[in-house]
Structures are given as structure tokens and as C-alpha cells.
Amino acid sequence: MGPPDSASWQSHLVRVQAEPPIWRFGDLWLRRYRAADHATVLALHREGLAQVGLRPGDGVYYDHDFFRMEDIYLRNDGEFLVGELGDRIVAMGGLRRADLIPGGHARAFGAYTPEPSALDAVEMVRLRVLPAVQRRGYGAALVQALEERAAEYGYRVLRADTTELQTPALALYRKFGWTETRRETIGGIVNVYLEKSLP
Fold first, then answer.
1. Buried b (16+ CB within 10 A) or exposed e, 118-156
2. For 122-138, what is each residue's pLDDT tens digit?
3. How far is the C-alpha of 46 from the C-alpha of 40, rounded, in Å?
4. Is 0.90 surpassed by the pTM of this model?
């Protein structure tokens, strides 16, 4: 998939396909994750965390959900999107039911609860943009697309957490009207929890 005509690029997010969902934001295309994307997505995740000094064993860093993408994101009223420039994945972000992975210390150790529950809250997670293409609005496009999907699924509350170190992520959430609900120190790192109500 790629842009057919550079002259027609737009600077706002446009939904070009309902299901599976596809959006366009200028030269960036957002589409649903596929199994073939796994290695690239995992590398992008790890690069994003390393960029702010997070590392395995710190109690905040974890990546076990990347090995259960179908269960955690695609089969349980969630979503995972990748952003492509040409044929290169440069951005990603997901939605997962808030009850699937616990918060705080437990999440770093692979806890997972597959029992279904009523749709209420969903977590926006794994927002990453390749450093070389940051500051082009791609993160904002991902947040907008994922908020749209959350509303389509019938969620009433969006939740997210990020570290105090990830100042661009905090600024992005605040730009979209998210509010901070609490802070928690894990392994010496301050984790910031945010929330947003959906209409």
C-alpha cells in the first residue's frame, strides 16, 4: 500500500476503508497489524523505550504482549495499528481491553486475564513513532484513529499510562484532552496514568 499521488496528500486524518480499517494522514497510511509485521513492530517498540532509557528488568519495560497479539489485541475487542511510509513501518499503537493486563508491577511480569467482561474501559498502548520521522503529526494521527476505534467498539473510558520520561507522549495525550489520574513509582521510574471519557 502506498500513496497514489503525492500532489493529493492531505494534512488531516482520513478514513479510507471501514473494515479492516485503513486511514491516511499525508504520506502515512495506518492499517491493522498482520503477523508478518511482528519483528518490525517489536524492534520499533524496543527502540522507542531505549530512546528514553527504559530497559528490561526495570519493572516498567515489558513486551510479552507482542507475543500474544491475536489474543490481546485482535480477538478481544481491541485493535493494533501500524503506520507505513511506502512499505516501511514507522509508527504503531494499540487498544486493548483494560482488564486483560493488570497495571503497576504485575504487568511487567506477564500477567494476563483472558476472561471476558463487559465493555467499559480500554487502554491505548504501544504508541511509538520511529525517531527519524517524529514531529510530523504521526503520533497524533494514531491517537485520533485509535480513539475513533474505541468509540466504534462502544468503550466509554480510555486509559493510558506512560513514564514521566516520555514527555512527548504526555504532551500528546494532554493535547487530546486526556487528564492525569495518578502517579506511581516503579523501580525508581515515575509512571503517569491518564484517562479520557468518550461521548
1. eeebbbbbbbbbbeeebebbbbebbbbbbbebbeeeebe
2. 999 999 999 999 999 99
3. 10
4. no
> What residues have CB less than 8 Å from 126, skipping those under 6 apart?
45, 65, 80, 92, 93, 94
Provide mean pLDDT across the span 101-128: 63
Grid cell locating 173:
495525550
Contact 95, 79 (CB under 8 A): yes
pLDDT at 11: 72
How confident is the model at residue 181, as a pLDDT?
Answer: 96
Rounded average pLDDT over 71-98? 94
